[in-house]
Specification:
Layout lengths: L3 H17 L7 E6 L6 E6 L2 H5 L12 H13 L7 H9 L4 H7 L3 H10 L3 E6 L12 E7 L2 E11 L2 E6 L3 E6 H7 L3 E6 L30 H6 L4 H4 L1
Length: about 240
């Protein structure tokens, strides 16, 4: 959704890019010599931005958070590896009013109409905050951030932590209380064939603390997929 906050973040990103140079940092192998005498070790290292947007499609415009969130689910949960935010935007403009979308952002109805147009199904569920822990597939949620509406991917809820993929800010962990305060109790689920029950979206990077050792996650049970509207033919 189009927000002043996202616009300001975009300006900040441009400023940072200017300060650090035109070329963004990228992952590269680092060779460590003589860790053991006569040997060398090579380790792949990610840049901060790459880690922040790992397994997440960033939004390129201030109104395309819904399109980027949807593209993320299609790419990482439905195996559509070549899909891009631009492709989703073009498809959504065919089922939505482009002028309204660019001014106000897309609606959940626009997202649903696009999902229907590509042969999948979409469902919206209104749930209570206590049911968040039972959400076992990646879904899209709408957050009210200081008065501005913004779509993000809800990956996983564990205790007082909510893991989200924010197409503007990247992957982050929110305190449950702050998430609930910003959330409208609606989850938007994409349903259909070829859903990957081992999708990386359900296994987000954990905080670098000892607490992560108690946060074990397993693939989605078939019965829970049926509870979310998947058909038997799509699950078994």
């Amino acid at each position: 959704m189009k927000t002043l906050a996202v616009s300001m973040l975009g300006m900040m990103s441009l400023a940072v890019s200017f300060l650090v140079g035109a070329n963004p940092a990228e992952a590269a192998p680092i060779r460590l010599g003589n860790v053991v005498p006569g040997t060398s070790v090579t380790k792949e290292v990610q840049s901060i931005r790459e880690r922040r947007f790992e397994n997440l499609i960033p939004q390129e415009t201030d109104f395309s958070c819904g399109a980027a969130s949807l593209a993320t689910i299609l790419k990482y949960a439905y195996g559509r590896s070549d899909i891009t935010e631009v492709e989703v935007l073009e498809g959504m403009f065919e089922v939505a009013d482009q002028e309204v979308a660019e001014r106000m952002g897309f609606s959940l109805l626009d997202l649903r109409n696009y999902v229907d147009s590509i042969g999948l199904r979409a469902r919206g569920y209104e749930i209570e905050q206590d049911a968040l822990d039972a959400v076992s597939i990646p879904v899209i949620v709408l957050l009210d951030l200081a008065g501005y509406q913004h779509f993000v991917v809800l990956k996983k809820v564990s205790g007082d932590r909510v893991y989200i993929g924010d197409p503007a800010l990247g992957n982050k962990v929110m305190e449950r209380s702050k998430f609930v305060e910003a959330w409208n109790n609606i989850i938007f689920a994409v349903i259909g064939e070829n859903f990957d029950t081992h999708t990386v979206l359900l296994d987000p990077a954990q905080p670098l603390t000892a607490r992560r050792l108690t946060d074990v996650f397993s693939p989605v049970p078939k019965q829970q997929l049926l509870d979310f509207g998947f058909r038997h033919a799509e699950v078994f």
